[in-house]
DNA sequence: TAACGCTGTGTAATAATATAACATATTTAA
DNA sequence: TTAAATATGTTATATTATTACACAGCGTTA
């Protein structure tokens, strides 16, 4: 089973919307916005979100219960995400830092655990809000 | 205003409970357990949790909406947390790795953002579940 | 082509997580 | 000893997410 290239109708509608926003969107705000396109129920939104997260088109910002598009064209980083979050204006940016990724990818604890995913969220104040 | 040494009644009850568990507890499971101690409403639980998180006695596992006690006696790491989470048995362990902490503490993005906190969650399979 | 598995859709109901608003009590500090 | 800050108690409600069920479309394969 290889990576799916074609998205379903609902998945497309919802990915479109998220990609048009440069900031994370919440599930019920997405629902509100796609009602005009015939998506009526939370579950329809959550199902599409689940799929889009799974294939790496979007990421969930766990501390905010919100979803942001992955700007990385290859979208192979669903399993290794780093974000910076401004606690004042709530601006969220995905961080791609080679050295940091390397470090995290290679991290080994002393419990013999096998990692296949990580998510890192930095919090602070962005330049505008300092 | 220095670090508060004395916790209020509700805060103590709830911290006690969380410290007795070596795994994260969810707010409503905490509520259920403390009803016999006279805590009746979600808000009473959430208020205590907020405070305990703020002073570093517990941490929130964001991806699980659950709370775990901080084992670090000094509890000064509320703002710099790393966890490993087994996706099979849901076992959660707080990680203290000097080199990793150093790396994360010193991380600078290229946006001039000032960080004061981070949270990192590793996912995978623990030794038992591999 | 018919039967099957897989993925997706639609809908209703409900579960789980979290906060707002208001009144009052207790502790702390000036 | 009074004012400010912190904590409590209660009701109601907002927000986030899932369960359960019925069915549609599509590609495989027997």
The average pLDDT score of chain A comes to 92
Series of H and E elements of chain A: HHHEEEEHE
N- and C-termini, Cα separation of chain A:
48 Å
Q: In one word, what is the shape of chain A? A: globular
Broad CATH class of the largest domain in chain A: Mainly Alpha
In CATH terms, the superfamily of the largest domain in chain A is: Winged helix-like DNA-binding domain superfamily/Winged helix DNA-binding domain
Q: What percent of residues of chain A are in strands? A: 15-25%
Q: Order of strands side by side in the largest beta sheet of chain A?
A: 4-3-5
Radius of gyration of chain A: 16 Å
Instruction: Characterize the largest beta sheet of chain A: strand count, sense, and whether it forms a barrel.
Output: 3 strands, mixed
Number of helical elements of chain A: 4
- Examine the coordinates and then state which fold CATH places here, giving the name of the CATH topology of the largest domain in chain A: Arc Repressor Mutant, subunit A
**Percent of residues of chain A in helical segments?**
25-40%
